[in-house]
From TrEMBL:
Region of interest called Domain III, as start-end residue ranges on this chain: 168-221
SUPFAM superfamilies referenced in this protein's UniProt entry, alphabetically: DNA helicase RuvA subunit, C-terminal domain, Nucleic acid-binding proteins, RuvA domain 2-like
Region (Domain I): 1-64
Name the record gives this protein: Holliday junction branch migration complex subunit RuvA
Organism: Sulfitobacter marinus
Compartments it resides in: Cytoplasm
Database matches in Pfam families: HHH_5 (PF14520), RuvA_C (PF07499), RuvA_N (PF01330)
Keywords, alphabetical: ATP-binding, Cytoplasm, DNA damage, DNA recombination, DNA repair, DNA-binding, Helicase, Hydrolase, Nucleotide-binding
């Protein structure tokens, strides 16, 4: 299994990049959102990857974060969702958006992805709603996984360094989930509240998310 690729971008296409790793080129398919965030041709890059092997096909899919990779794995486990549909969903919503949509049961957000109909969107939400808390609790970007250090070892020293992935409040969401769990809230309810709070205030840090989620979880009336 190829779990990560670190090298230099040789070529960019509409749905994939060609990454040179010490003279060996790897075609890596990515979502539109991930492709847009990658550096230019000739620059260093590192991607977490998932290798799909079929009888007549081998394809490598690339992701900037472990959260994005995990959502791809889960999305493709849903009946009727292939790699193309999964990348479309991730490209439309991003990994944080997928977490929020599924935690909140918002299948209309999932349906906004190209090629994803209402039945598939509803199935995605139904099948993966219980998995959302676990994914939201994951943290770690490529920079945190020492991708830049490894890039320096794999490519020529004079090559430009890769750009770090944009920061998100994924860590704050994970910490808020943990705090709510310690307070006795169920994972599903906690995930939905944290997702809603994060959606309303994307830059919120942990204390703000916890307070907002507690207000959402408070009994009405």
């Amino acid at each position: 299994m190829i779990g990560k690729i670190t090298g230099r971008i040789d070529y960019r296409a509409s749905d994939h990049v060609l990454i040179d790793v010490r003279g060996v080129g790897y075609l890596v398919y990515c979502s539109e959102r991930t492709l847009a965030a990658l550096p230019g041709v000739g620059e260093a890059v590192a991607l977490f990857t998932d290798l799909v092997v079929r009888e007549d096909l081998m394809q490598l899919f690339g992701f900037q974060t472990l959260v994005e990779k995990e959502w791809h794995r889960l999305l493709t486990s849903v009946q009727g969702v292939g790699a193309k549909a999964s990348l479309a969903i991730l490209g439309t919503l991003g990994p944080d958006g997928v977490s929020r949509a599924i935690a909140l049961g918002d299948w209309n957000a999932v349906k906004a992805a190209k090629g994803v109909g209402p039945k598939i969107a509803q199935r995605v939400v139904l099948d993966l709603k219980d998995k959302a808390p676990g994914v939201m609790a994951m943290t770690g970007t490529l920079a945190e996984a020492h991708g830049e250090v490894e890039a320096a070892q794999v490519i020529e020293p004079s090559a430009p360094q890769s750009r770090a992935a944009p920061a998100s409040n994924q860590s704050a969401q994970a910490e808020a989930l943990s705090a709510l769990a310690n307070l006795g809230y169920g994972p599903g309810d906690a995930a939905g509240a944290v997702a809603q709070a994060a959606g309303e205030n994307p830059e919120a840090q942990t204390p703000v998310l916890i307070r907002a989620a507690l207000k959402l979880l408070a009994p009405k009336g």
